[in-house]
Every structure is written in C-alpha cells, then in structure tokens.
C-alpha cells in the first residue's frame, strides 16, 4: 500500500511473561500543506492518499468551494527547502475555478489542524460558523431504521487499511434510499476522512449531496456536523456519541443526527422525523 502503511518492529508482551518480536503494520501519518495559487493556506496531519479530494473537501467546509466548477485542479509540488527539485508529495497547490475568491487567512484563524481535532486553532465557534450554500432542512429524504442499523457493518467491511493496521477512521457516503455504499475513505483523522468523501463529490460534480447518509466510524463532533451541512448531506450517523455543539448545530440547521448506532439500537439527537421506525415500535 505504499505510503499508506508502514512496517515497524514491535515487542509483544503478555502478562504470562512471554515476549516476542515481530513486525507490525502501522497507518502512516504525514503533514499535508495545502496552498492556493502558491500561497500557503493550511497544514493537516493525514494519511497520504486521495490528497486532492482532501483539499477539495476542506475547501467545501471553509465555504470556498460550493460546486465542482469552483475547484479547477491541484498538483503536488516540492516541499519546503527543496527548491522544487524533490517532490515530497506533502505539498498540494490548488487552482480555483474562474471567479472563485480564495479564503482570507487572517489572524482569527490558524489553519493548522491535527489528525485528532480539525477544530484546533480556531479562535471561536463564530469563526467557523460559515454559511452553507446548501439548505439540508429542505431535504425530504426518509431513511429506515433497519437501513441505518446495517451501515456500521457495511462500513467496517470496506475498511481495508483498518483491517491491516487497526489505526484509521472511516467515513462512508451511502444512498439514503437503497443503503448502497457510494464511496468510502480512511484516514488517521476523522475529519480528513470526511473531507476526502466530500472532495470525491466535488471532483465528480455531485454537490449538494442530497438524499445521502454520511456514516462515520467514531464520534460526531461539531466539525463533522458542519462538514455534512456544508456538503448538503441531510443525515449524519456515527457509531459513537455526538457532542453537545454537534446536536445544537444539527437542530438549528435541520440535519438528522444519529449517534450510538450499534446493533439494533440508535439514538436520534436531531431530525428524528426523517427516520422511519418499524410499525410495531414507535416512540415511548
């Protein structure tokens, strides 16, 4: 898998006193610097691969890119200090479409993000309250509880790199009516995995992603809810808990937010009217 995984020696220790040495497969984590027309914009720690999608999805979440035509092209270029002679594949220069204004990197926003928290460096919640071009509240899609319950296993079954490393998050885009997996991406950062999914949609000119479900392998943070809204995705589901701010944002913006999606149960924190439950059930 090239730069996606790396083999390193490990000492395995058991409480029985038995030890062994063997190689282990790790998920690679490297920085990616995103530039716009040669000007540095952001640095994120990510798993190499699908970098153009990552940049495109990131720009959607920042309100810069709204349609496929807003993102013209991207190219890897030489890293800092190389003079362009050596390509580190850790610097990506993006060209925006005609008439698209580049983002302003003022002091209110530090565009450095880590694999664990895409919100790091943002001065306040107000600094990321960008206005989406897509109103998810008007999406009249309905999803069955049975279909939602099947998504975690479907997501897990397609996590090829996680199977080898156990160290990656996943985000999957599903057709809300059929439950069919449309695209899945993995990354050490859950927000990067989502950006790659959204970036795939940008490059295929499929925004807004109406009538789709975004399924994530971890918790549902404020930022993941925001990314879903910015891409026009009406339903966000997670195997773990949402944050309070994610619930507040989902409620305000009309996003259906599902958490603790495990086995045959789930918690719907916002937008429950979109979830069709079995006839014999109902809300107690």
Automatic annotation (TrEMBL):
Keyword Cytoplasm part of the UniProt annotation: yes
One matching Pfam family: FdhD-NarQ
Compartment(s) where it occurs, according to its Swiss-Prot or TrEMBL record: Cytoplasm
Coiled-coil annotated spans: none
HAMAP family assigned to the protein according to its UniProt record, in alphabetical order: FdhD
PANTHER family cross-referenced by the UniProt entry: FORMATE DEHYDROGENASE (PTHR30592), SULFUR CARRIER PROTEIN FDHD (PTHR30592:SF1)
Family named by the database record: Belongs to the FdhD family.
Role: Required for formate dehydrogenase (FDH) activity. Acts as a sulfur carrier protein that transfers sulfur from IscS to the molybdenum cofactor prior to its insertion into FDH.
Name used for this protein in its record: Sulfur carrier protein FdhD
Organism name: Microbacterium marinilacus
């Amino acid at each position: 898998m090239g730069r996606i995984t790396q083999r390193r020696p490990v000492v395995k220790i058991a409480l029985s006193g038995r030890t062994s040495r063997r190689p282990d497969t790790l998920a690679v984590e490297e920085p990616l610097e995103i530039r716009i027309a040669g000007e540095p914009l952001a640095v994120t720690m990510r798993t190499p691969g699908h970098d153009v999608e990552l940049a495109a999805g990131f720009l959607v979440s920042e309100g810069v890119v709204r349609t496929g035509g807003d993102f013209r092209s991207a190219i890897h270029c030489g890293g800092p200090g190389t003079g362009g002679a050596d390509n580190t594949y850790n610097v990506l220069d993006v060209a925006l479409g005609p008439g698209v204004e580049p983002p302003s990197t003022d002091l209110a926003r530090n565009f450095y993000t880590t694999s664990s928290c895409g919100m790091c460096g943002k001065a306040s919640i107000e600094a990321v309250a960008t206005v989406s071009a897509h109103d998810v509240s008007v999406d009249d899609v309905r999803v069955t509880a049975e279909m939602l319950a099947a998504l975690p296993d479907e997501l897990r079954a397609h996590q090829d790199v996680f199977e080898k490393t156990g160290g990656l998050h996943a985000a999957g885009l599903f057709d809300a009516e059929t439950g069919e997996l449309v695209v899945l991406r993995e990354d050490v950062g859950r927000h990067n995995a989502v950006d790659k999914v959204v970036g795939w949609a940008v490059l295929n000119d499929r925004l807004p992603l109406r009538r789709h479900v975004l399924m994530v392998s971890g918790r549902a943070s404020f930022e993941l809810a925001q990314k879903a809204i910015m891409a026009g995705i009406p339903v966000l589901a997670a195997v773990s808990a949402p944050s309070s701010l994610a619930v507040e944002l989902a409620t305000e913006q009309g996003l259906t937010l599902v958490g603790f999606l495990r086995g045959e149960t789930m918690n719907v924190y916002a937008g429950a009217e979109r979830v069709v439950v079995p006839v014999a059930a109902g809300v107690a």
